[in-house]
Design brief:
Blueprint: H1 26-31, H2 44-59, H3 70-88, H4 96-102, H5 106-115, H6 123-129, H7 134-145, H8 149-167, H9 172-178, H10 184-195, H11 199-206
C-alpha cells in the first residue's frame, strides 16, 4: 500500500500484469512503446472496461472455484481492448507493426498473410490483395516493418512452427507442410537459421 498527499479526492489505482513464457511475436513487441495511455470513449465500451476490472477484482480472491482463471482471461481481453483503442487513436507515435496494421495498404496485406500463412504467396498476389503495385507494397513493408513482405511471411511461418512444435505432437515434417513449406529439408534449414537449432532439438528444449 502506498500513501501520498492527503488533500483532494480519493484515487484508486488497480494494477495487473500479463506473463508469457515466450516473447510475443517480435514485430508486436518492438512496436509497443514502454508506456501509453488509452481512454475508452464514454458509452458501452467504457462501461465494459470498468465492469470487467471490477469483476476481475471481485473474482480474484479465489473463493469461488467456478471462477478459477476468470481474472486472467479478463486481463487478456482488457489488454486486447487497450491495444485496439491505442491503434484506433491513430497516434502519431504509432510505428512498426502497429503502424503497419493501421496502414490501408500494409494492413490488408498483413491480414491476408495472417489469415492464410500456408498459402504459396507471390508478391503479385499479395499486392492484388492490398490493391496496390508490387513496388508500393515493398516500399510500405520496408518503411514500416523493416523487411520485405516475403521475409515477413517467412518470419511469421517460423513463429507458427515454433508454437506447433511446443504445443502439439505433430512431427517435424507435418509442421513444415502445415505452415507452407514444400520440403522438410528446407524447413529444417530455415528454422535452424532463425532459432539457432534444428526443429527436433528446439522442441526438446522447449518442452523440457
Amino acid at each position: 500500500m502506498i500513501r501520498y498527499g492527503g488533500g483532494g479526492g480519493r484515487t484508486s489505482v488497480v494494477c495487473g500484469y500479463l506473463h508469457c513464457d515466450d516473447p510475443i511475436f517480435d514485430p508486436v513487441v518492438r512496436a509497443l512503446p514502454p508506456l501509453f495511455s488509452a481512454r475508452p470513449p464514454a458509452g458501452p465500451k467504457a462501461a465494459w472496461v470498468a465492469a470487467s476490472i471490477q469483476y476481475a477484482l471481485d473474482a480474484s480472491d479465489g473463493r469461488d472455484p467456478r471462477e478459477a482463471g476468470m481474472p486472467v482471461r479478463l486481463a487478456e481481453l482488457l489488454f486486447l481492448e487497450v491495444l485496439k483503442l491505442y491503434i484506433d487513436s491513430a497516434s502519431p507515435r504509432l510505428s512498426g507493426w502497429l503502424a503497419a496494421v493501421h496502414d490501408p495498404v500494409a494492413g490488408r496485406a498483413l491480414a491476408a498473410l495472417h489469415a492464410d500463412p500456408d498459402r504459396t504467396w507471390t508478391l503479385a498476389e499479395l499486392a492484388a490483395q492490398a490493391a496496390c503495385s508490387r513496388s508500393t507494397l515493398n516500399d510500405r513493408f520496408g518503411r514500416l516493418l523493416g523487411r520485405a513482405p516475403m521475409q515477413y511471411l517467412n518470419d511469421w511461418r517460423l513463429q507458427l512452427a515454433a508454437e506447433l512444435l511446443r504445443d502439439t505432437t505433430l512431427g517435424v515434417a507435418a509442421v513444415a507442410y502445415r505452415i507452407g513449406y514444400e520440403s522438410e529439408e528446407a524447413f529444417n534449414r530455415a528454422f535452424k537459421r532463425a532459432m539457432g537449432s534444428p526443429p527436433a532439438q528446439w522442441r526438446q528444449r522447449a518442452t523440457g
